[in-house]
TrEMBL record:
This is Chloramphenicol-sensitive protein RarD. InterPro entries: EamA_dom (IPR000620), EmrE-like (IPR037185), RarD (IPR004626). Keywords: Cell membrane, Membrane, Transmembrane, Transmembrane helix, Transport. Belongs to the EamA transporter family. Pfam families: EamA. Residues 21-157 form the EamA domain. It is a multi-pass membrane protein. Its main location: membrane. The chain crosses the membrane at residues 21-43, 55-74, 86-105, 117-134, 141-158, 164-180, 192-211, 223-248, 255-274, 280-298. The keyword Cell membrane applies. It is found in: Cell membrane.
Length: 345
């Protein structure tokens, strides 16, 4: 029976501890994103546009403080010298602005369930965009999942009497945002800092314009309301920091499963807390979406398992080949002797 050394035991414990910390941060991040519909109604009577602007302004302040504390500024200089990456970050800032704005409006307008649907179908939209824009090839299970997702949208269109525009807008804007961020290749906190820096001046200008018209609620609804508006920066930044801590500690497949926690919580809040209607045709549409996601998840786990098996077999074969080479070398030693030449003078 193999005996682990103290050093090996310590490494194993450290690894398990890191994974536990990663899982806790992952649950915290997606849990906060799932429960955020409880927060936006607290900001009324502020409208969605004013809430959005405050979110942009205060998020930059929180992120800058975090970067100062963590001393992570090295990325800023090179980024400013790369116009293409700056252009991509501008596109990312625009798409996440649309996503944030639509989501805040949807929650405060009583469409929490439809908003949750947007994040349920987001993985399917991401796959479809990969095929259309990046010419990626899909496995049969992925094609089937996309087809079921399309059928779900048709069923929900019949149920709602129109296409689920809120869901589609959220899904496509967030999928585009993810695609652009992948090309920018910048860390989560750094990316948010760059995006909110671009959003800051337009958002601040809008808030000043509202204030000049006397339509701003900040400062006019009491200190508590002003504090809640300022807290939008914390609500934006803290889950992202937790997500970043999770992303470096747990496998991508685990994060892929955790991502469903947010829309599940949003869906449950929409039904159980906000008491939104769910007629039979909507249940049918959601059931199709969940079937597509189940197929997608099963395919991803199966593919990951196959990849791990192939890598493990390759490592085993390489180890066996190296051991065989050592045994052959031991069985047939090669002796090299120098030649001594004696010269008599």
């Amino acid at each position: 029976m193999p005996v682990e050394s103290k050093g090996e035991q310590h490494i194993g414990l450290d690894s398990k501890g890191e994974q536990r910390i990663g899982l806790l941060n992952g649950f915290a991040a997606y849990g906060m994103w799932g429960l955020v519909p409880l927060f936006w109604p607290l900001l009324e009577p502020a409208g969605a546009a004013e809430i959005l602007a405050h979110r942009m302004v205060w998020s930059l302040g929180i992120v800058v403080i975090a970067l100062v504390v963590m001393r992570r500024w090295a990325w800023a200089g090179p980024l400013l010298r790369q116009p293409r990456r700056l252009g991509l970050i501008t596109v990312a800032a625009a798409t996440i602005t649309v996503n944030w704005g639509v989501y805040i409006w949807a929650v405060n307008a009583g469409h929490v369930v439809e908003a949750s649907l947007g994040y349920f179908i987001n993985p399917l939209v991401t796959i479809a965009m990969g095929v259309l824009l990046l010419k990626e090839r899909l496995r049969p299970a992925q094609w089937a999942a996309v087809g079921i997702g399309f059928a779900a949208v048709l069923v929900l269109t019949i149920g709602y009497g129109q296409p689920p525009w809120i869901s589609l807008c959220l899904a496509f804007s967030f999928a585009t945002y993810g695609l652009v961020k992948k090309k920018v290749n910048l860390g989560g906190l750094e990316s948010l800092a760059a995006e909110t820096a671009i959003q800051f001046l337009p958002a601040l200008g809008y808030l000043l314009w509202l204030s000049s018209r006397g339509d701003a609620t900040f400062g006019g609804e009491g200190a508590g309301h002003a504090a809640l508006l300022a807290a939008t920066g914390v609500v934006t930044a803290v889950p992202l920091v937790c997500f970043g801590a999770a992303a470096i500690r747990v496998p991508l497949s685990t994060l892929g499963l955790l991502q469903y926690l947010a829309p599940v919580l949003q869906f449950l809040l929409g039904i159980l807390y906000f008491h939104e209607a769910m007629p039979a045709e909507r249940w049918a549409g959601f059931a199709l979406v969940w079937a597509a996601l189940s197929l997608l998840t099963w395919d991803a786990l199966r593919t990951a398992r196959k990849s791990r098996t192939v890598l493990r077999e390759a490592a085993t074969a390489a180890t066996a080949a190296a051991e065989a080479a050592r045994e052959a070398a031991a069985a047939n030693p090669t002796t090299t002797s120098g030649t001594t030449t004696s010269t008599n003078t």
